[in-house]
């Protein structure tokens, strides 16, 4: 199997505007889970203020890659991570990295919406409260701002204190997005975030993400090529734990350099 | 993005987590420790009094005043009682749980409410069973006897058998029954296949019931009576081990109290042996499934 | 072919019959207890029986208050000791402990559950009672034999450890990892996540476990009887003797039958236990099975 050598990676990276220092830099990342190597030598700079989609067949390690970014994998047992992931220039796997700070920098949007078992309002202000915000007026203001951000304010403003689980599943996912935004992250991570949603809710979320990229760096895992085409600026193709190709969306989809990418994009491998 | 949170005091938050973790570990140690503590106390107090005479002889005259003899009658009484009631409970309990899982639609009202009923019965204390059985026995003119004890303890153990087997039946893969049915088997034939599949687990259920039966006091206190004779007839009062412990313990004579500790040790050994067997069987059941 | 179907039908009806018989027995227990307790209920009204503290069977007074309060005292003490310990320990087992630790601790809980009540009683007499009379009570300047509601509470607390732990662990394991991830990814610490997400989500199950523990504690007879002192008085402190309902039945049944109404009074006590425990169990089992369905 042919994969990118490091010089080729550099070439690809050179295509990307590197005037600004990238927020997320991954260097020689290797991840073993229960003795099995899931990610092999991943090195990559993720461009700021744009949407990067990670694509690849199921089981190729895309979700693992996403979860290494906010250290959610640490909690599962028998996970070994080597290499480094720099966020804002700090190695999040470094010795004195503080995991709650790292996670606060990133909002996670999971496959299915998981509203916390509390009211809509409490869901949004959960993060700010944990980080020490006690001022009620400020909390109210945060809740309104974030709910407006995801276009949920008008739908829920009269029932802020009812249980979040009573919302429709699409509303729940937007609530989860707002909840993530309320801790002022710099990065949004999405793990197949629309796979449980109906087409209309999917579209809403996708449009929201496109709107948000001016303020945030967004990384999405998706197995739907059409979605990657619709929303992303860059695409990263991962196969069996290795980065095969990384580049601008249209380059990857229309003019892939690697044979594997070509086959995947055409639907020969999945 | 101008808004900033107040000082986050992350150190304090992490310290809280550390303190909580220490408290949790202490609780865990205390709870698991209590087991070793109980067994240890009984071992420490009972071992000096344990002798071959204790477990090989029936009480002689004046046994409860500190004279010679042993508690063989109580050991045998308990074993007979537990064997008989567990046996009946198994014979009644297995068909009931099979019926509730294979014959009645799984989520039907009958199945659900019957299972709920058995869950609830599982929690009814044995003193209640004992009280009602005793009154019925008086009403029927039966005196306290081994038979009375067996009936009471059977009622007590049926819910245990039904519940445990029901849990086991839930683990049977649905494919197994479907494959059997698709071969044209009747429900009874399918039930036999299922029974074979969960066989080691059935023994676990039986042992659980046996352990409960042999250790129960409140149920036998009123219904079985007590006797210094070896249990020979089912319609006569019989001694049981837990009750022997209880009676000897209330004696003011230190020698007799010591025997109570030794009897407690014998009961502990029996229970630990049963638990060990269940554990080994559970391991076998797991292997069986792979 | 017909033979096979015939056997099938036979088994079906046989099993249905056994089930019906068993249910009938339960109904008979409830009915029997009520019939037997009826004379007392005619003799005095229910409220009088439950709220009077005068227990003098020879004069025909059957006030259950001392026994009811005795039961409540030991049960509450048991809960105060065991609930926090069990919640903490189950959190540790589910959230922090390695698989190996969890797999070796949970079977130990089964051993603890298998130990017969009488052995708990022996342990109580050998250890708990002397400790209370020699070490704990003097701390408060109180003199006591040690046979007290406190001793009963401690013994009961240990007895309900297994049921609390096993159900709490099971319930906490049903909290989805993704939900915890959602809280963690907002920057909450593991402990904060447990307090505001896992425990909140598991709350109905934890309450159900506690209710089951309560009903176990209320019905426990012999172990409590052995360490509680059994004086028909209303306990005024942790170090006073108490006389819980099951102990009343066990101590007196079959012995005081010549006193009029005594029989009915004891049957009423049994009925009281049956109703309370049936109700408690029913509620918590329904809650638990709902959780399982939605889990």
TrEMBL record, chain A:
GO terms for molecular function: ATP binding. Keywords: ATP-binding, Nucleotide-binding, Phosphate transport, Transport. Pfam families: ABC_tran. It comes from the Bacteria. The keyword Transport applies. Residues 24-265 form the ABC transporter domain. The keyword Nucleotide-binding applies. This is Phosphate ABC transporter ATP-binding protein. It comes from Sphingobacterium populi.
Automatic annotation (TrEMBL), chain B:
Belongs to the binding-protein-dependent transport system permease family. The chain crosses the membrane at residues 22-44, 79-104, 116-140, 146-165, 202-222, 260-282. It is found in: Cell membrane. It holds the Pfam family BPD_transp_1. InterPro entries: MetI-like (IPR000515), MetI-like_sf (IPR035906), Phosphate_transprt_permease (IPR051408). This is PstA family ABC transporter permease. It comes from Sphingobacterium populi. It comes from the Bacteria.
Automatic annotation (TrEMBL), chain C:
Keywords: Cell membrane, Membrane, Phosphate transport, Transmembrane, Transmembrane helix, Transport. It is a multi-pass membrane protein. It is found in: Cell membrane. The keyword Transmembrane helix applies. Residues 68-284 form the ABC transmembrane type-1 domain. Pfam families: BPD_transp_1. The keyword Cell membrane applies. The chain crosses the membrane at residues 16-41, 61-94, 106-137, 149-169, 206-227, 264-283. Belongs to the binding-protein-dependent transport system permease family. CysTW subfamily. Part of the binding-protein-dependent transport system for phosphate; probably responsible for the translocation of the substrate across the membrane. This is Phosphate transport system permease protein.
């Amino acid at each position: 199997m042919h994969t990118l050598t490091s010089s080729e990676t550099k070439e690809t990276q050179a295509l990307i505007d590197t005037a600004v220092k990238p927020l997320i830099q991954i260097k020689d990342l290797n991840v073993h889970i229960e003795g099995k190597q899931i990610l092999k030598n991943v090195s990559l700079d993720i461009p700021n203020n744009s949407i990067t989609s990670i694509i690849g067949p199921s089981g190729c390690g895309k979700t693992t890659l996403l979860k290494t970014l906010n250290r959610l994998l640490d909690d599962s047992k028998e996970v070994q991570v080597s290499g480094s992931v720099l966020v804002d220039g700090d190695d999040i796997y470094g010795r004195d990295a503080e995991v709650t700070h790292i996670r606060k920098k990133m909002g996670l949007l999971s496959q299915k919406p998981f509203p916390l078992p509390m009211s809509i309002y409490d869901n949004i202000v959960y993060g700010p409260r944990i980080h020490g915000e006690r001022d009620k007026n400020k909390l109210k203001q945060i809740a309104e701002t974030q709910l407006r951000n995801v276009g949920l304010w008008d739908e829920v403003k009269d029932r802020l204190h009812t249980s979040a689980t009573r919302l429709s599943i699409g509303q729940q996912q937007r609530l989860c997005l707002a909840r993530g935004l309320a801790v002022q992250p710099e990065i949004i991570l999405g793990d197949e975030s629309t796979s449980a949603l109906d087409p209309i809710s999917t579209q809403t979320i996708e449009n929201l993400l496109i709107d948000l990229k001016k303020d945030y760096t967004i990384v999405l895992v998706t197995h739907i090529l059409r979605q990657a085409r619709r929303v992303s600026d860059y695409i990263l193709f991962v196969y069996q734990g290795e980065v095969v190709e990384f580049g601008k969306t249209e380059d990857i989809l229309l003019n892939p350099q690697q044979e594997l990418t070509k086959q995947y994009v055409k639907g020969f491998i999945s | 993005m101008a808004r900033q949170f107040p000082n986050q005091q992350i150190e304090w938050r992490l310290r809280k987590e550390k303190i909580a973790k220490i408290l949790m570990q202490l609780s865990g140690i205390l709870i698991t420790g209590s087991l070793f503590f109980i067994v240890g106390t009984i071992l420490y107090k009972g071992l000096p009094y344990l002798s071959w005479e204790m477990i090989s002889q029936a009480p002689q005259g004046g046994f409860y005043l500190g004279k010679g003899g042993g508690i063989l009658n109580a050991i045998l009484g308990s074993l007979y009682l537990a064997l008989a009631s567990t046996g009946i409970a198994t014979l009644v309990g297995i068909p009931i749980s099979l019926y509730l899982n294979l014959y009645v639609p799984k989520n039907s009202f009958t199945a659900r409410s019957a299972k709920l009923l058995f869950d609830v019965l599982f929690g009814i204390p044995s003193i209640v069973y004992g009280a009602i059985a005793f009154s019925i026995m008086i009403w029927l003119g039966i005196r306290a006897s081994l038979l009375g004890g067996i009936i009471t303890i059977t009622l007590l153990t049926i819910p245990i058998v039904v519940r445990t087997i029901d849990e086991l039946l839930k683990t049977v893969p649905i494919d197994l029954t479907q494959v059997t049915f698709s071969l044209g088997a009747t429900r009874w034939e399918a039930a036999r296949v299922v029974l074979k599949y969960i066989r080691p687990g059935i023994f676990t259920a039986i042992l659980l019931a046996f352990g409960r039966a042999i250790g129960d006091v409140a149920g036998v206190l009123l219904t079985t009576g007590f006797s210094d004779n070896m249990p020979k007839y089912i319609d006569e009062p019989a001694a049981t081990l837990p009750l022997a412990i209880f009676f000897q313990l209330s004696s003011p004579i230190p020698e007799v109290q010591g025997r109570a500790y030794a009897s407690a040790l014998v009961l502990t050994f029996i229970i630990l042996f049963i638990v060990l067997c269940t554990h080994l069987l559970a391991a076998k059941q797991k292997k069986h499934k792979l | 072919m017909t033979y096979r179907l015939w056997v099938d039908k036979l088994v079906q009806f046989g099993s249905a019959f056994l089930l019906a018989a068993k249910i009938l027995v339960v109904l008979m227990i409830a009915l029997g207890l009520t019939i037997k307790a009826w004379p007392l209920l005619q003799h005095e009204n229910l409220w009088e029986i439950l709220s009077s503290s005068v227990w003098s069977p020879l004069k025909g007074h059957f006030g259950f208050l001392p026994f009811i309060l005795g039961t409540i005292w030991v049960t509450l003490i048991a809960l105060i000791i065991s609930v926090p310990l069990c919640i903490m320990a189950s959190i540790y087992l589910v959230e922090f402990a390695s698989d190996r630790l969890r797999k070796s601790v949970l079977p130990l809980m089964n051993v603890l559950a298998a130990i017969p009540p009488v052995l708990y009683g022996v342990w109580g007499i050998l250890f708990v009672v002397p400790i209370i009379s020699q070490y704990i009570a003097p701390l408060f300047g109180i003199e006591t034999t040690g046979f007290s509601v406190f001793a009963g509470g401690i013994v009961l607390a240990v007895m309900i450890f297994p049921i609390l732990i096993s159900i709490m662990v099971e319930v906490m394991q049903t909290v989805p990892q993704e939900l915890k991830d959602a809280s963690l990814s907002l920057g909450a610490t593991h402990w904060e996540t447990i307090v505001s997400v896992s425990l909140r989500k598991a709350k109905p199950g934890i309450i159900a476990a506690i209710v089951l523990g309560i009903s176990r504690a209320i019905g426990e007879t012999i172990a409590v009887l052995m360490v509680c002192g059994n004086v028909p008085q209303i306990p005024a402190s942790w170090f006073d003797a108490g006389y819980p309902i099951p102990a009343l039945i066990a101590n007196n049944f079959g012995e005081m039958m010549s006193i009029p109404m005594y029989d009915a009074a004891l049957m009423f006590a049994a009925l009281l236990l049956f109703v309370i425990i049936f109700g408690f169990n029913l509620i918590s089992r329904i809650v638990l099975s709902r959780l399982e369905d939605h889990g």
